[in-house]
From TrEMBL:
InterPro entries: Beta_helix, PbH1, Pectin_lyas_fold, Pectin_lyase_fold/virulence. It comes from the Bacteria. This is Right-handed parallel beta-helix repeat-containing protein. Residues 199-349 form the Right handed beta helix domain.
């Protein structure tokens, strides 16, 4: 009897295990469903779950409630007019993936200027967008027009959003920043009912071309009495071309990594009232900007390759290549009349090291705001603890006698001047004399810089202030090799210049 009893239990257990396994398989199949979309041969009345049963439109995709592990794949070489605005969300380990199938050509999402964004993710987590072409051109420029908008509102921490290998082009947003501008990509986190931030937001391997006004920018919690930063933001290996305004601007972040991006060929179409620069943080802490190349920035106000801007702590700008930018290599700034208010604790602890600047500050015409103003480095307002060391500056002969020939210009932006600026161990190669202006800045010192004293009146200080000592010894013996590997592997002239310096 006992044997029969145990056999019965074993049979029941096996049957239950079989049922559970079948249920798990069904759940897995449901979770990992793939939808296919083909504008040429699909039909929205189809099931969408195989290439021969593909859907046809974005509108159909937008009606779906996407679950974890779901794939939405658009047929290679097809084109879709309208807006992609999916619903749902993935989970850790099983994100939603939107991509392509059936060939190498990217499917095209064309907003036609009818939508503020051709692709809009709203309150979606664990989602990846890959391998698509996106455009959004209207008959006229529009305030706030974007290629992709990633938005999270009143939904807490929003995790794991990846944009990868996208071609975003011809987005004609406004050229006026105060009216909302426009950009290829915008992320925005906001909400007063539930503090909402991004965690693990990655934008990589994308090509952004001919988008106005900006490339990649953001909105977030920026006031220090209500500062809730997004974390693990990574922007890397993107190519930005034909972007006239700001290239990459993380806002309201902590620990953002901006690396291996190229911004070039910026059209000179902004008005004299518009300030813009290449790569810079705003109201962001612990930003690392490295191995990027910015060239040909032509904004009439600012126009530098790199910038450590308003309300930022601990920005590091290292191993970058800046060249042929109208406004110069570097801006460090903060607005004085808002310093030490709930919105602005200051710009402090900016480290600028191991960069190469060639032929920066070449604005070829006077601007309405400040004439020919285009110093190689502009340090403005109440910025503290600026460490500029072990950089290489090369200044070829300027084409016009009126072009600005200033190495560093320090001035006042509505309040106190800069305090504690170290310029040390830099190599400067001049083809003609340059000038300096420290103004009323405090504790500005130049130490161990290599240059021809006939070309620049930079004071050589012998006594090292206590606050600067650590940075004089902060030296990466391999920085030149890193720069050659990143930018000049096939450029013998630059390799020789770096080795000689």
């Amino acid at each position: 009897m006992k044997i029969s009893y145990y056999i019965s239990l074993l049979v029941i257990a096996i049957l239950c295990l079989g049922c559970c396994t079948k249920d798990n398989i069904k759940q897995a199949e449901k979770a990992f469903i793939t939808y296919y979309v083909d504008a040429n041969t699909g039909n929205d009345n189809n099931s969408g779950t195989s290439p021969d049963q593909a859907f046809a439109t974005l509108e159909k995709v937008n009606t779906l409630s996407l679950k974890e592990g779901t794939h939405v794949l658009f047929k290679s070489g097809t084109s879709y007019a309208g807006q992609l605005k999916p619903k749902g969300g993935g989970v850790s380990g099983n994100p939603i993936i939107i991509s392509k199938y059936g060939g190498e050509a990217r499917p095209v999402i064309n907003g036609e200027g009818r939508y503020i964004a051709a692709v809009h993710f709203y309150n979606m987590a664990y989602i990846e967008l890959r391998d698509l072409e996106i455009t959004n051109t209207g008959a006229e420029q529009q305030n706030g027009r974007r290629g992709v908008v990633i938005e999270a509102e009143n939904c807490g921490k929003t995790k794991h959003i990846i944009l990868d290998n996208l071609f975003i082009h011809d987005v004609n947003g406004s050229l006026v920043k105060s009216k909302g501008g426009g950009s290829a990509i915008l992320w925005r986190n906001h909400g007063d009912k539930s503090i909402t931030t991004f965690d693990s937001l990655i934008i990589q391997n994308c090509h952004l071309k001919d988008c106005t006004r900006n490339g990649i920018n953001a909105r977030g919690y920026t006031k220090r009495d209500n500062w809730h930063p997004s974390t693990n933001v990574i922007i890397r290996n993107n190519l930005l071309e034909g972007i006239p305004g700001d290239g990459i601007v993380p806002i309201g972040t902590d620990g953002a990594l901006i690396e291996y991006n190229v911004m070039r060929d910026c059209p000179d179409i902004l008005s004299h009232a518009e300030a813009a620069a290449g790569i810079w943080p705003w109201s962001a802490d612990n930003t690392l900007i490295q191995f990027n190349e910015v060239s040909g920035h032509k904004a009439k106000w600012d126009g530098q390759g790199f910038d450590s801007d308003w309300n930022c702590l601990n920005t590091t700008i290292q191993y970058n290549y800046s060249h042929d930018n109208y406004g110069g290599f570097l801006l460090i700034c903060n607005k004085g009349n808002t310093i030490n208010t709930p919105s602005n604790i200051g710009t402090k602890n900016t480290i600028v090291r191991y960069n190469v600047s060639v032929n920066d500050g070449i604005r070829p015409y006077p601007t309405e705001r400040r004439g020919w103003f285009s110093p190689c480095m502009h340090i403005s307002g109440p910025v503290e603890n600026n460490f500029i060391h072990h950089n290489l500056f090369i200044f070829p002969e300027k084409a016009n006698v009126d072009i600005d020939r200033t190495f560093i210009q320090m001035d006042n932006w509505g309040g106190p001047w800069a305090n504690k600026t170290l310029v040390a161990n830099n190599s400067l190669e001049f083809s003609e004399p340059y000038k300096m202006f420290y103004g009323k800045s405090k504790q500005t010192c130049g130490i161990n810089n290599e240059f021809d004293s006939k070309m620049l009146g930079l004071t050589r200080e012998e006594q090292v202030p206590v606050w600067a000592k650590d940075y004089l010894n902060d030296y990466d013996t391999e920085w030149k090799e890193k720069m050659i590997e990143a930018f000049f592997k096939d450029d013998d002239e630059m390799k020789n210049i770096l080795i000689d310096n």
